[in-house]
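1st attempt posting a full record on here, be nice pls
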Amino acid sequence: MSYKKKILDKVLEKRGYLLTYHKMIGEWDPKLLESYDSFYENLTLEERTLTLKNRELVWAALQVAADEEHGHIHMKRAKKIGLSSEILTNAIALAGAAESHRALWFGFTHWGEWIPDDYSKKCYLDICENARGDIEPKIAEIILTVCHAARRSYGPMRIHLQRTFENGASQAELAEALSYMLLPCGGPTLIDAVKIWEEEGLKNNCPSPY
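the predicted structure (as tokens):
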């Protein structure tokens, strides 16, 4: 068996599928595919700090925030480990709640005489609370932080960074959730998100990422 076929078969056996880019990289650079597959396994298949169920809740919301339609892979994983359709919908609703911040920000920024900042923030947080359903508060805050990071909406990301730790999340849990952004959003987006976290840590608004 050729090295190329061996690597492709290994990926297929592990995941149960081959994506188009697996086939392309496997055809022309199987060593790279082998290295990438190991990275992917450690990033999103092996259990790290988050529970498997919480991991898939983060992934569900992140892929909506990143406008990534290939989320069926994570939907299947979520159902396999016992997540209900209702709680997956709550995760997606949190991604939608994150997007509502832009509308409220627009209102108090341009029409501040009539749309007060403090009440807009309250309305936004009420939307988030109603969206989370049975998702525990700290995971909901992690999800909201990741969604805003993915969309580069750093004002509300700062709000949820503080609330994430106020609700009992650990640095390791948030670091894991943010690391998922490497795949749908890319390294530069993750660099900027961690920079925001670093800044908030230096201001003593939350624990630092390192």
